[in-house]
Task: inverse folding
């Protein structure tokens, strides 16, 4: 699936996560025990498949209703983890599994520290192609997913930068996109000697400062040229104690100025799973309103 012309505007949609990527610069933590927070009415499956875009095996976690009628086709939500995280984060650190009880298939892919983008200086790391071309195809070949944009959503956690771009680059793929604590300013962050390692890493992903590759990955630049009528509905939240709040306010103001269909909520809390988990009911409520009762 090629990216070109207008369709290069997206998800950090949130959600289907836009976006996705991490707003924070957490150090990689040692592997944590895998303790998914499931309910008796859902089932979980971990899948390993070969990604042509990355030329290596990749994993994703699936949470879906425990009982599905033989002829049923369900809407799918892609949940993208943040920086320093992995494909187990959503199931282990939030109550996201409860929403599968309402007839959704939740897909949680591994993204490493990629921001789910085709890296500018690492040709082997084509993570956007992996999501858009490889992952969606594999999911739809293995699970009872309702095909088509109207039943496909992308949700992302604090890593909305790329998922947001994907929702803007690929508006034909997703009907809803959400970003919780999205790092919309990552491609435009100026040099800081205190964050020299982060600067170098961002350069390898988004390209050199001031270059066209970095502009192509900047949500603020993309939102200037995207067609609001063709862009998925955007749901954004940010905690009132987060350093990301000013950038998110500015991005929401741009969406308002250009008449995008969106909502933006400033909520109590900081950049942590406690805040993000509390936001999920409102995110999924908005999702259900926009995909319809069927």
Result:
């Amino acid at each position: 699936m090629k990216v070109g012309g207008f369709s290069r505007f997206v998800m950090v949609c949130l959600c289907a996560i836009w976006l996705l990527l991490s707003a924070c610069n957490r150090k990689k933590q040692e592997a944590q025990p895998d303790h998914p927070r499931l309910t008796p009415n859902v089932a979980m499956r971990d899948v390993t498949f070969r990604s042509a875009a990355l030329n290596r095996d990749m994993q994703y976690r699936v949470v879906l209703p425990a009982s599905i009628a033989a002829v049923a086709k369900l809407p799918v939500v892609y949940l993208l983890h943040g920086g320093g995280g992995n494909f187990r984060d959503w199931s282990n650190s939030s109550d996201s599994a409860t929403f599968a009880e309402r007839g959704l298939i939740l897909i949680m892919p591994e993204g490493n520290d990629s921001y789910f983008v085709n890296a500018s200086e690492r040709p082997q790391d084509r993570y956007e192609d992996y999501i858009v071309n490889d992952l969606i195809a594999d999911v739809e070949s293995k699970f009872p997913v309702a095909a088509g944009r109207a039943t496909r959503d992308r949700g992302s956690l604090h890593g909305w930068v790329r998922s947001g771009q994907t929702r803007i680059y690929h508006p034909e793929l997703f009907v809803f996109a959400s970003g919780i604590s999205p790092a919309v300013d990552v491609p435009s962050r100026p040099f800081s000697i205190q964050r020299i390692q982060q600067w170098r890493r961002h350069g390898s992903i988004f390209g050199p400062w001031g270059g066209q590759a970095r502009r192509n990955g900047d949500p603020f630049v993309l939102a200037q040229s995207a067609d609001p009528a063709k862009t998925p509905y955007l749901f954004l939240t940010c905690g009132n104690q987060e350093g990301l709040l000013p950038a998110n306010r500015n991005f929401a103001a741009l969406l308002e100025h250009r008449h995008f269909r969106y909502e933006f909520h400033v909520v109590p809390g900081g950049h942590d799973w406690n805040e993000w988990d509390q936001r999920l009911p409102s995110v999924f409520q908005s999702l259900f309103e926009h995909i319809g009762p069927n």
Summary: The first helix runs from residue 89 to 93. The chain has one domain: 5-291. The two ends are 28 Å apart (CA to CA).
